[in-house]
Q: What sequence folds into this?
């Protein structure tokens, strides 16, 4: 066990050196962690266990360079990794699945990839971690053109691989404001509100997930009507 502990500590320290060279993993702490786990079940350092470990001790603030590294990693996984293949599989089910289901599947792939890339920088592998990362990202003091372009490339890959969609002309600020105003007016229209109320009543005995999917279908149809 002592040899195992020393080897494991060295491996962790090697990985940690890329993130924060001041953080070390002692042989003693690894040994007792291993001993504790073996009292319950056979030790298994899965990738999730490693992600949890990495996120538990890295507390460095988010910088532009780190944000760019995270975005580059996300882009790479979506373009060439398993995540990219999962997006192509979503596109292959276009005839059998609704737009709502495929959109949710695409976001699932994106969020899973995002979690994988933010955890080494100290964020927890869950919704709380993603929320904190996006909050930190939005609080960076000055706009960064490269970071904005990277975000655009990420969404371009998501939509191209999952839906076969390609980016069109970029909206102007005035067009975006007009679009938002029309959408806001549509969803506050009494007919739209009544439609949602009737849907909720008809699905009262069903799962909330089904209600959510049907509501999203209606909202997506509204978006498409405006875009036409």
A:
């Amino acid at each position: 066990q002592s040899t195992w502990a020393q080897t494991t500590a060295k491996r962790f320290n090697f990985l940690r050196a890329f993130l924060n060279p001041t953080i070390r993993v002692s042989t003693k702490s690894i040994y007792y962690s291993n001993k504790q786990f073996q009292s319950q079940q056979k030790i298994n350092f899965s990738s999730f266990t490693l992600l949890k470990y990495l996120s538990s001790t890295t507390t460095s603030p988010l910088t532009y360079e780190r944000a760019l590294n995270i975005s580059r990693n996300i882009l790479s996984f979506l373009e060439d990794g398993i995540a990219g293949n999962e997006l192509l599989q979503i596109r292959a089910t276009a005839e059998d699945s609704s737009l709502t289901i495929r959109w949710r599947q695409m976001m699932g792939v994106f969020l899973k990839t995002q979690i994988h890339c933010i955890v080494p920088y100290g964020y927890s592998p869950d919704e709380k971690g993603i929320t904190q990362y996006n909050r930190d990202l939005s609080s960076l003091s000055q706009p960064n053109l490269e970071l904005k372009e990277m975000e655009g490339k990420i969404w371009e890959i998501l939509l191209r691989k999952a839906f076969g969609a390609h980016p069109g002309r970029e909206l102007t600020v005035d067009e975006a404001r007009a679009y938002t105003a029309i959408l806001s007016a549509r969803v506050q229209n009494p007919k739209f509100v009544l439609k949602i109320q009737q849907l909720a009543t008809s699905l009262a005995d069903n799962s909330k997930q089904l209600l959510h999917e049907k509501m999203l279908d209606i909202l997506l149809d509204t978006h498409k009507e405006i875009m036409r």
Q: What stands out?
A: The chain is about 75% helix and 0% strand. The chain has a mean pLDDT of 76. Residues 55 and 214 are 37 Å apart (CA to CA).
